[in-house]
Please model this.
Amino acid sequence: MSRRWISVLFQVGALLVALMVTTLVLLVAGAPPFAAYWEILKGAAGSLQSVSDVLVAWVPLLLATFGLLATSAAGLWNIGVEGQITLGAIFATWILRAALNTACPPWLAVALCLLGAMAGGALWAVLAGALKTFGGVNEIFGGLGLNFVATALTLWLIFGPWKRPGVGSMSGTEPFPPQYWLPTLPGARLSLWSVGLGVAAAVIIGILLSRTYAGLKLKAVGKNLKAAFLLGIPTWRYMLLAFCVCGLLAGLAGGLQVTGVYHRLIPSISSGYGFLGLLVAMLVRYRALWAAPVALFFAALNIGSIQLPITLKLDSSLAGVLQGVLVLAVILGEGARQRLLTRLDRGAAATAAGAEAATTATAAEPGSDPALPSVEAPPERGA
Model:
């Protein structure tokens, strides 16, 4: 069996294991599994409104996932992507609030807002990268710490300087006027501008990682940092570049959340898309080709599961169970696949070595080569 088919079998097996575990959880909870899956499907694709909601959730998840592909190519775990989305939203809100008091045209204010959001996300990401490259702080711990700082900053702004007049609640800041919103489809929250920007950014990052010299150097840094340094690659610059690229995309996701979805800053503006993007990136094994469809599948699970509390009295966190088990099954399956391939390679190498040894021994026997004259044994004495 070829390596490709072995990989396909393990991936299909991981999906089946995830479905089996989720089904078992549903049975223990006393819920009909097939009815739950059907409700998720209807909630994600049962109407045009549902499909538009799936695409609304897909865009920030797509941006977070492709940003994480850039940092993972450099061998970095950018856990701080949640904070980078939040900082992008904060910068977007700041610029829009400033534009309200000027003669700036709304379309220009929205454009500047998205650019500022990208700058805010990149700034927060480069800060995590600087802690890693210059301060020796592990990017996991640095990113988590910056996530908490970003969340605290959001709450302080909502309940402090940007507090709604006469209102202090978790609903967020004062909504922006409609002329400062991204245009949406009639009767839906979906903005084609958001989808276009998300897809364009994903394509650019995919080309950057797979078709450019900079992407090759980035992967060299991720594969072997010391070897890349000895080859003359400025490793710290490329590590900061990876963080910056991820921050740009995460900040754009935050800006689109403000201008295209909520139209204000809310405490949970990131909506967990950063951590969910990390799951998607691990599930596709950091391959850009599969990142977009898998992110769409995860977005559909999140939106479809909203129907479960209404119809079956089940918590919508069931989608998280399925997503987590699926990623865990894929990771465990990948380890088993690598061990199987290693054993097969060793067996093939041993077989080849044995065949080569047998050929060498046969060639060493007298008269075994038909190109040489046969040598007859001398007659015995006394014959």
